[in-house]
Each structure stands twice: as C-alpha cells, then as structure tokens.
Design goal:
globular
C-alpha cells in the first residue's frame, strides 16, 4: 500500500477510524498534538506503571521492551477507541479506566502464577481483548464497552 492509497482512503473513514489513524500517526511520530496535550501512548504508559505502583520514566525501559511497547501501543489505542468510545474524554476518565484495565492484566498474571511486572504487563498487551472478555464475558462482542466505561464517567448530582 502506498502513501497515496492511504491518503485517498482517508476521506471515506468515519470519525472513530480517523481518530485511530491520528493516534497511530502521533505514536509513530512520538509527538504531541498542537494543543500541547499528552498523547495517548504516553498516558497509557503512565497508567501502566502507576497500576503496579512502580513509577518509572519511559526512557528507563530497556530498548527491547520499549520497542515492543511502541509496536503494541497503537493497537491498544485502536482497541480502546473501538470498544470504549469516550475512554479518553478527560484525564480522570482516562486514568481510572486505564488503571482498571491494567489491573485486569495484573489479576490475569497472578492467576497464571506469573509475578506482575512492567515487562509482564507490556508483553501481555496484545492479549487485552482476551483478558477484558474474560473479566466481562460477552460485553465486547455485544458492543457494550460503554457499560464498563460508565463507572468512570462523571455523575451529575
């Protein structure tokens, strides 16, 4: 597929697909949106390490692990955009949702007898569909991710 093929296809995409393309492009460029907001891959990484209570800068990841994370974070963001529309609507929703999702990976690792670590979480990112589906059977297939996300939305008094 050439650059021209991709550019020609963009106008036919819906908003969610365009946002997914934007997230992937930004992660590949390792840049920030023009409004100065933190891009999703960095937010995802921050929530990942916070879930374990072991804060660390991305720059201290071993190169192999960083490369694996960089290769898998765009797919993770596409997964979130597809099944949990609005997961990134604000920082509080984002952080709470991501920590809950990553705690599911921690639980899965413990159930398998594997000690949870930053590396273990990163290497299990491609299993996210399976892990979420095990925790919430049938929700993803029925497109009911919004019900899971609902607990992180602001409640009005």
């Amino acid at each position: 597929m050439t650059k021209d093929d991709i550019l020609t296809a963009l106008p036919s995409l819906n908003r969610a697909d365009l946002e997914a393309v934007q997230a992937v492009a930004l992660s590949l460029l390792k840049g920030r949106p023009s409004n100065g907001a933190v891009i999703a891959p960095q937010t995802v990484f921050d929530a990942l390490v916070a879930t374990l209570g072991r804060p660390m800068p991305y720059s201290s990841l071993p190169p192999t692990l960083a490369k694996y994370y960089d290769a898998n974070s765009p797919g993770l963001i596409i997964f979130f955009n597809k099944y949990f529309k609005g997961w990134d609507s604000n920082q509080i929703t984002q952080t709470g949702f991501l920590r809950m999702i990553f705690s599911l990976i921690v639980y899965d690792l413990k159930e398998r007898g594997a000690p949870p670590s930053i590396a273990a979480l990163i290497y299990n990112l491609p299993r996210i569909y399976e892990i979420v589906d095990n925790a919430f059977p049938g929700y993803l297939k029925a497109n009911m991710g919004h019900m899971i996300l609902k607990m992180f939305k602001k409640r009005r008094a």
